[in-house]
Design a protein that fits this description.
Strand content: under 5%
Number of strands: 0
Number of helices: 3
Distance between the termini: 52 Å
Structural class: mainly alpha
Number of domains: 1
Largest sheet: none
Radius of gyration: 21 Å
Helix content: over 70%
């Protein structure tokens, strides 16, 4: 059975390689794939930013807030906003 699992993994890896090669060797497929990835990341960021802002609000009011945690969250928020603005249509 271990051999079957290994063969299955090889076939799966081969399928991924073939699919990737088909996508990356066609300009339209490549453009479409990267456009999808960009749109997906923008959607994810749109959902993540409010939660990050909420985390910052909570930690800023926390009586035992660690300065390193606040600094990291503030830096992450600033970077996420910068990234969002850089990719805005």
């Amino acid at each position: 059975m271990a051999r079957t699992g290994g063969v299955t993994r090889l076939h799966a890896r081969s399928d991924v390689v073939q699919d990737s090669a088909a996508t990356l060797t066609c300009a339209a497929e490549t453009a479409g794939d990267f456009a999808y990835q960009c749109a997906h990341e923008q959607e994810e960021r749109a959902f993540d930013l409010p939660f990050l802002r909420l985390a910052l609000e909570i930690w800023r009011e926390h009586p035992k807030a660690a300065p390193a945690v606040l600094a990291a969250l503030e830096e992450l928020l600033a970077e996420q906003i910068r990234h969002q603005e850089a990719h805005a249509p």
